[in-house]
Amino acid sequence: MNYQQQSQRAIKGFEHFLHTPLETLLRKHLDQNPAAEIIKLFQNVAANVPAYKAFLAQQQINPDSIQNAKDFQKLPPLTKDNYLKCYPLADFCRDGKIESCDMIAASSGSTGKPTFWLRFFTDELTIATRFEQIFYDSFFADTKRTLAVVCFALGTWVGGMFTTNCCRYLSSKGYPVTVISPGSNKAEILRVVSELSPNFEQTILLGYPPFLKDVIDTGIAGNIEWQQFNIKFVMAGEVISEEWRNLVGERISSQNPRYDFASLYGTADAGVLGNETPLSICIRQFLANNPNAARILFGESRLPTLVQYDPMSRFFEVIPNSSDSSNKEGIERGTLLFSGDNGIPLIRYNILDNGGIISYDAMLQFLSEWGFNPVEALSNDRGIRNLPFVFIFGRSNFTISYFGANIYPENIKVGLEQPFIRDWVTGKFVMQIQEDADKNRFLSVVVELAPGVEASEEKKQAVEDSILKQLKRLNSEFANYVPQEYQMPKVELLAMGEAEYFPQGVKHRYTRS
């Protein structure tokens, strides 16, 4: 690809982004067959990406034999181990030309060894559409002067730079959006909001949920009146509970959390794969209050992230769990695979996330059986899109097993987000199974206290009671498998930033083996 081709590629992509209405983009899957489009992408990648050519040859697969959806499902999934660790970086790009991309981001993954991801300007435009969907459908940013404050870490890591770029492109498309990127510097974020937000009709904070909550709490301690700034949130990186959403919503005086919050399902591998919508949040709120319905729909005793996605942008499939035979038509559960174009295009890529996909019609039908119509429950027509849903639990190694019951961090979080308890803690904790002197196992939960809060036996007992109550309510395995005398967790309350359990400056882990 020469200089002229590269510049034409950028111009064509930007013109398409600027001049194509969001409505047109989000209805495309209703007029075209996403499966047919993904086979076209496969053929292009098989012909032009050296690493994928070599992978198919090693698997003895003739690309010409992949002609329909059934053929496509026979392709072996890609993983980091069988694909990304096996070829030189340039070979993952079209024609083996690393210079066909203009940006590199890094992800550390679970091993701590960085993986590098290449992309071009036009790849970011595809992801900018996810931000446009949120800014338009949820925040009405087409009509409001908006300050977007990027609170993701800046540098080689994907979140900060990628998010900053995507928000700027919305301004180019005509949205009255102005972007500033203080990154994860809390003092600078608070200064930015205090000095700049009065010039705008709303302020959007984009970042990692625990960090954004810390920003809000620190601001309250510093007498910042968040309610005057019409605060909105765009979040990524962690499953939140509806109790968390309500708690933070109260602290910013949110009038309608369905239109004030949006979580992203994103990866360094391929950008944003899906996003919360007012409709998906409305549904999740109902399911949070009806754990039996949630358990039947999702197949587990915890509430996953629930987002909608555009199958023309990212094509999802599910490898079913061998033990799960309860899936209904339009509802699939198991290991998620996705395919999509990017600087490094990925075909049937497995990032080891557990979850599932639910068609729009199947979701509404399921909810109607429980007497709920989310479309009628929403106060506005915006945010109602006929798009499929994907739900994500994340990776199974973040659970712990206790008397055969799987205990999830999401279960513990809800216990810490109850009234009174939530004022004492930051929301961070570490759960693990330990043994006492007699080798009896018990559930240990080490909890981080909020700034200025001191531990006491009274607080410890209240936290234990709250965690136990929510565990028994949300997790039927725990309630039925764990003998009653072993159900009460043993809580330890530690000061904020305690080095062993809550080190500063690193991503928090909620479990220990």
Describe this structure in words.
This protein has 19 helices and 19 strands. The chain is globular and about 70 Å long. The chain is 38% helix and 21% strand. Helix 7 packs across helix 8 (158-172). It is an alpha/beta fold. The chain has a 6-stranded mixed beta sheet, with helices on both faces.
Would you kindly provide a brief summary of this structure?
With 513 residues, the protein is α/β, with parallel strands linked by helices.
Helical amount among residues, as a percent range?
25-40%
How many strands, which pairing sense, and closed or not: the largest β-sheet?
6 strands, mixed
What is the strand arrangement across the widest sheet? 4-3-5-6-7-8
Number of helical segments?
19
Mean of residue pLDDT? 91
Low-confidence stretches: none
Taking the alpha carbons of the first and last residues, their distance comes to 50 Å
Beta strand count: 19
Q: Please indicate the percent range of residues in DSSP E strands (runs of 2 or more).
A: 15-25%
Please state the CA-atom Rg, rounded to the nearest Å.
23 Å
Principal-axis shape: globular
